[in-house]
Write a structure and sequence with these properties.
The protein is of the alpha/beta class and 377 residues long. Helices cover 40% and strands 14% of the residues. A hairpin with a 2-residue loop joins strand 8 and strand 9. InterPro entries: DegT/StrS_aminotransferase (IPR000653), PyrdxlP-dep_Trfase (IPR015424), PyrdxlP-dep_Trfase_major (IPR015421), PyrdxlP-dep_Trfase_small (IPR015422).
């Protein structure tokens, strides 16, 4: 019996245990210590964002964005239906309404034409997500948000280190969010970051992240005591998590090289099979630099999705579907709205199969996945 090939396995970076031990021995394991400073510097280097704050999760970074944009009842935020729920809950928690729009099926990314249509006088922001780290059509989206005079937020959970030719993902929006959940390319168990590209939001972001206090300014010696200034919560990452994150970010190139090797092997090894069966593989536009966060096959129908996943499971290979469109989910129907049925999101979600992809996969495991998929007819 062959070992099971899991769908995702967190990368183990060289210094993570030593870093953790150093934190535990230092008696400083709450947030904003030396590893937070180091990981934050690595993150701003990597993304070229002017400012970043580490957070407890991407979800919390999205919550912070909603607070910083002063969302409230009556306000609307336009976002894709095919995404993770956190971008929508961040809107709903402020009493505002998520307006779901459809995707471009060739990428799974938000369709700019639908964004333009969904903008009303109540729209306060557009949130996009770079699916699989493939860049959203940012030029078109930025034209729409600029014309409407509203901010863009990037949920960049998949897009760390990606670029659309010249622009780093996470730097187009006024705010962008990262996830360091252990299913992401770089992880620290649970964690995230808020990238702050608009300097004017930085001081308030520090306050919101520190329970609504100006503790960050106090620690820098800018004020002689810290006081309650605003709403906020405890959104800062523990130094224990930051210690792991710092070591992971130091290994970023190694992680990405390993992931791209798997991605390329799937693209090469499955091209002929996909052609024969008239299926579509996740495509690689050479003008964009994706992040090899995932690799997928689009089956002709929902039965094909179910059958391929179970075929692979029979061979000891874990494959997976992905997001259930938010507009069709119970909370989406309760809290959100759409202009029309979002058929492309529904079709994409019901047909897509993601293959195992993680940095530690061996050549033999990658070959087994390729052979396993090719044996499906
Ligand atoms: C993983 C993910 C999130 C949530 O990240 P957490 O750090 O677990 O809160 C949000 N958005 C997208 C697109 C994700 O993939």
């Amino acid at each position: 019996m062959l070992d099971e090939i899991v769908f995702s396995r967190p990368y183990r970076s060289a210094d993570e245990l030593a870093n953790l031990e150093a934190v535990l021995r230092s008696d400083h394991s709450h947030g904003d210590g030396a590893f937070t400073a180091s990981a934050t510097a690595r993150l701003t280097d990597l993304t070229s964002a002017p400012n970043a704050l580490l957070t407890t999760s991407c979800t919390h970074a999205l919550d912070m964005a909603s607070i910083l944009l002063d969302l409230g009842p009556g306000d609307e935020v336009v976002l894709p239906s095919f995404t993770f729920p956190s971008a929508a809950t961040a809107v709903v928690l402020r009493g505002a309404t998520p307006v779901f729009v459809d995707i471009d099926e060739s990428t799974g990314n938000i369709d700019p034409a639908q964004v333009a249509e969904a903008i009303t006088s109540r729209t306060r922001a557009v949130t996009v997500m770079h699916y699989g780290g493939v860049p959203v059509d940012l030029d078109s989206i930025l034209k729409i948000t600029t014309d409407a005079g509203i901010p863009l937020v990037e949920d960049n959970a998949h897009g760390l280190g990606g670029r659309d030719g010249f622009r780093m993902l996470g730097t187009a929006g006024v705010l962008a969010t990262q996830s360091f959940h252990d299913t992401k390319n770089v992880h620290c168990g649970e964690g995230g970051a808020l990238l702050i590209n608009d300097e004017a939001l930085l001081e308030r972001a520090e306050i919101v992240r520190e329970k609504g206090t100006n503790r960050a300014r106090f620690l820098r010696g800018a004020v002689d005591k810290y006081t309650w200034q605003d709403v906020g919560s405890s959104y800062l990452l523990s130094e224990l998590n930051a210690a792991v994150l710092d070591s992971q970010l130091a290994s970023f190139e190694t992680i990405q090289t390993a992931r791209h090797r798997v991605w390329d092997a799937y693209a090469d090894g499955l091209a002929e099979w996909a052609d024969d069966l008239d299926l579509r593989l996740m495509s690689d536009d050479p003008t964009l630099q994706h992040t090899a966060h995932l690799f997928y096959v689009v089956m002709p129908d929902h039965d094909g999705q179910t059958e391929l996943i179970s075929h692979l499971r029979g061979l000891g290979i874990r494959a997976a579907f992905h997001y259930v469109p938010l507009d069709s989910s119970p909370a989406g129907q309760r809290f959100g709205r759409t202009l029309r049925p979002l058929e492309r999101s529904a079709a994409f979600s019901s047909r897509l199969v993601r293959l195992p992809l993680w940095a530690g996969m061996t050549d033999a495991q990658v070959e087994r996945v390729v052979a396993g998929v090719r044996s499906f007819r």
